[in-house]
Design brief:
The protein is α+β, with helices and mostly antiparallel strands and 71 residues long. The protein contains 1 helix and 4 strands. Helix content is 21%, strand content 49%. The radius of gyration is 13 Å and the shape is flat. The termini are far apart.
């Protein structure tokens, strides 16, 4: 059971119509977490993905910023 609380971004689209998205999702009625995974066009099916707390998402952002633009 899930509820997409907020669609944030579509990261890519697969040739078979699914999209990889970043969303804020509540799973099993729990507090929403940031979620990256592939979704069917109607959002009734999803692939395997990863869920992150806000702190984890912020840490990932910082790591990617450093990795992609080292100074």
């Amino acid at each position: 059971k899930f509820e997409i609380k907020q669609h944030i971004a579509c990261l890519s689209e697969e040739s078979y119509g699914w999209t990889k998205e970043l969303n804020l999702v509540s799973w099993q009625g729990n507090a929403p977490k940031y979620d990256i995974r592939a979704w069917s066009a109607d959002h009734t099916r999803s692939g395997k993905g990863v869920t992150l707390t806000k702190d984890e998402l912020t840490a990932l952002r910082d790591v990617l910023n450093e990795y992609l633009d080292p100074r």
